[in-house]
Amino acid sequence: GAVVSQHPSWVICKSGTSVKIECRSLDFQATTMFWYRQFPKQSLMLMATSNEGSKATYEQGVEKDKFLINHASLTLSTLTVTSAHPEDSSFYICSAPRAGRDTDTQYFGPGTRLTVL
Amino acid sequence: GNSVTQMEGPVTLSEEAFLTINCTYTATGYPSLFWYVQYPGEGLQLLLKATKADDKGSNKGFEATYRKETTSFHLEKGSVQVSDSAVYFCALSQEIWGAGTKLIIKP
Fold first, then answer.
1. Which residue of A has its CA nearest to B89?
2. Which position has the higher pLDDT, A102 or A20?
3. Which of A88, A116, B2, B98 has a CA that sits 20 to 30 A from residue B107's CA?
């Protein structure tokens, strides 16, 4: 099966610091990856679409300067939360469809719990 | 705009009961519809999907039919098991997700 990993699985940081979250497709290539944010007992909110070799596409209302996305290779996308604040505390999830395959089917990472103190 | 409305949980059933989790949508065009499942402590997994009207997606005993006339994609299972306890999400493409329904199955 297709596996997507995320690192770290959880992180606690001080307000004002930056945190980088990695999303890797372990056994397939992904030209596109999606970053979501999930609030407690709520649905996933798509933040941005990460495109290998080009700029990410951000959803309306998501600050691109705050949530920096880099898709440097066909298996790795990173989300950096810059100058984090307590309101950025959330569960961040990435997903990816297989490149060249059924692009409707996404494979999800296990998520990263960010807590900003 | 596009949206998904999913029944609120938690839904608590006894083992072997019949399950229905309602999902209705609003969309322009004919997007694909999905059900995802999140087991405790695990990442989201695709459960089933349907890509056009009248399509039926099925997996692990679960079924859902893409009904254009009622704009619905209800999830059903004839006999649930304790291992089906999880949170179920209805989704319309990658962008639009329901709020999730927690399912609790008691032995």
1. A43
2. A20
3. B98
Residue A102: pLDDT band (50, 70, 90) is low
The percent of residues in chain B predicted with pLDDT above 90, rounded, is 80
Contacts of B36 in chain A (CB under 8 A): 108
Residue B102 near residue B10 (C-beta atoms within 8 A): yes
Give the pLDDT band of residue B28 (cuts 50, 70, 90): confident
Helix or strand (DSSP H, E) at A7: strand A4-7
Kindly indicate the confidence band of residue A100, based on its pLDDT and cuts at 50, 70 and 90: low
Kindly list the residues from chain B whose CB atom is less than 8 angstroms away from the CB atom of residue A51: none
In a mutational test of the A interface, the residue from B32, B42, B44, B48 whose CB has the highest number of chain A CBs within 10 Å is B44
* A47 vs B30: CA distance, rounded Å: 23
CA distance B17 to B19: 6
- Mean pLDDT across the stretch A45-65? 93
Q: Buried b vs exposed e over A83-116: b needs ≥16 C-beta within 10 Å? A: ebeeebbbebbbbbbbeeeeeeebbbbbbbebeb
**d(CA B2, nearest CA chain A) in Å:** 14
Nearest to B97 among A43, A49, A105 (CB): A43
CA dihedral sign of residues A5, A67, B33, B18: positive
How far is B100 from chain A, CA to nearest CA, in Å?
6
